Amino acid sequence: MRASAATFLALIWTSSSAAGECPAFAGRVWEFTGHLVNEISPGPPNYDSVTSGDKPVTRWYLQLSWPACFDEYKHLTKFQLSLEAQEVDRYRQLLGKEITVRGTLKEGVPGRHTTSLVVNVSSLVRLGRRGS
Fold first, then answer.
1. 132 inside domain
2. Calpha distance 108→80 (Å, rounded)
3. pLDDT over 50 (residue 114)
4. Strand pairing report for 117-126 and 73-82
5. CATH code for the domain of 54
6. High-pLDDT (> 90) share of the chain, %
């Protein structure tokens, strides 16, 4: 399997993050590998507590295989995924599987997002099994 240039550069920048050199996240398409997971978190009206009456909202994430860093965001271990309802239905079968996500990054909005950076997904595919 061939790694994309963006993935390669993200790996290089991630490994150099100790020196404080993290790339800007905006204005480019990125490719990340990890596991597709979902979690229930509090939604409207207060985005505070499901047990206190907030609506439970299921959010989808890419759990990264290694920490990433961008601009002032260091040691990121997961990204929330921006998906439409029909995409959630299509990708449900990939929950828990290793995937590759391609898309742009934007800053998360408190309440609506639970991660600092969010992936606007342009493609999401399951990684092929090695040797098959």
1. no
2. 8
3. yes
4. parallel
5. 2.40.50
6. 68
HEC-encoded secondary structure of the chain: CCCCHHHHHHHHHHHCHHHCCCCCCCCCCEEEEEEEEEEEEECCCCCCCCCCCCCEEEEEEEEEEEEEEECCEEEEEEEEEECCHHHHHHHHHHCCCEEEEEEEEEECCECCECCCEEEEEEEEEECCCCCC
Residue 21 lies in a domain: yes
Residue 131 lies in a domain: no
pLDDT of amino acid 21 = 84
Please say whether the beta carbons of 83 and 69 come within 8 A.
Answer: no
Structural domains counted in the chain: 1
Read off the pLDDT band of 10 (50, 70, 90). low
71 occurs within a structural domain: yes
* Residue 93: domain span: 5-126
**Whole-number Å distance between alpha carbons of 56 and 115:** 17
pTM of the predicted protein model: 0.79
